[in-house]
Amino acid sequence: MKNYARFLIFFGLCFIILFITAVGIAFLHVWVDAVRHVPVKSSIMLNEIVESGCWALPFALYLTIVFSVNEGRRHKVAWPLIFVSAVALAGVFTFGISKGLSNAGVMPAPPLATNHITLGRQGLLLSRPGVVITLLDRPSNAAGSRVVAVKDRELIYQKVPVGADGKIIGLPPIPFHDASGWLSYLIISDLSVSGRFIAARFNEGLIPYFAWTLALIVLLVSLGLVFELTRWPLANIFLGLLIFRGVLAFEVFLNSDKIMEYLLEFTRGAIPDALITPAIFVALSVLVLVYSFLIFLSRATTGADTKRSLP
Fold first, then answer.
1. Nearest residue to 293 (alpha-carbon basis) of 60, 82, 79, 3
2. How many CA within 13 A on the CB side of residue 152?
3. How far apart are alpha carbons 237 and 74 in whole angstroms?
4. Among 130, 155, 220, 232, which residue carries the largest CB count within 10 Å?
5. Which residues pair with 125 in a beta bridge?
6. How far apart (Å, rounded) are the C-alpha atoms in residues 132 and 149?
7. pLDDT, tens only, 33-91
């Protein structure tokens, strides 16, 4: 029971730490976006942080299951205890965080001041695809004069950059983005899609929400068989991360509009719309669990035959 208690503590701490870390990264992302805005945004709203950090929940969920299930198998905790406890704890944490994020998104909170000056000075060059803008005044002056260079067109001088709607034409942000991080951007993008879908299901009601989240959690936990593929825990973690990355991509694939339209047309009302994707996840989970059970029986039979053959 000592190892089982250690597993429960590890799961709870891992989920909390990973979620707080992801929220901190989301806050830094929002703050950097505010600073690179021209002119700089004077404050950050709480709902901006919630929207930017929508990927934090699936991030914590996926990684916690990987690390915790591996920890439980490494310390020889019984698989039924790992399965039931991981599903229950993940469901409780996921629901609690979803509730908190939902409340935070509509909470009337005072804006957080950035207290930062606008970067750059006169002559700052800003660009967007096909357009280069040269600021002739200080970047902090949103209505300052500009020179706009559009591809294959003459230079445009704007003494007062006002659009047809009478509003000041916005400027592109200062380019801090590094194109070399395309892989991490792709993963965060998929996690954001997953997080927004979880939030949408939460707003639809408890039945669609729990049907979706529990089906996803059961699938992830049932894939714990990967942690017995090798004798090296670190190698098992990397294999688990690769498999879970595939599950995340599959989740985003199923949630796409075209695939959902195809599934709705295929089922023709035989399954409620909100339960189609959970049903697919449950079916996959059953296949994985049956496969795991057959492997267990095979090993048990082999071990029994070996003992009988011994003199």
1. 79
2. 2
3. 11
4. 220
5. 134
6. 5
7. 887 777 777 778 888 888 888 999 999 999 999 999 988 888 888 888 999 999 999 99
**Is there a contact between 122 and 137 (Cβ–Cβ < 8 Å)?**
yes
pLDDT digits (tens, 9 = 90+) for 250-291: 999 988 888 888 888 887 777 877 788 889 999 999 998 888
In the structure encoding, which two tokens stand for residue 124, read together?
A: 């700052």
Nearest in space to 101 (alpha carbons), one of 54, 63, 58, 145: 54
Peptide bond into 110 cis (omega under 30): no
pTM score of the predicted model: 0.82
What number of residues does the chain have?
Answer: 311
Pairwise CA distance, residues 63 & 48, whole Å: 24
Q: In sequence order, what are the beta bridge partners of 127? A: 132
Q: Which long-range contacts (CB under 8 A, 24 or more apart) does 20-23 make?
A: 22/53, 22/55, 22/56, 22/59, 22/60, 23/49, 23/53, 23/56
SS (H, E, C) 162-218: ECCCCCECCCCCCCCCCHHHHHHHHHHHHHHHHHHHHHHHHHHCHHHHHHHHHHHHH
Sequence-distant (6+) residues with CB within 8 A of 267 are 276
Tokens of 306: 């070996």
Distance CA 263, CA 256 (A): 11
Task: Specify whether the CB–CB gap between 4 and 86 falls below 8 A.
Answer: no
- Picking from 112, 68, 109, 116, the residue whose alpha carbon sits closest to that of residue 88 is 68
**Cβ pair 135, 144 in contact under 8 A:** yes
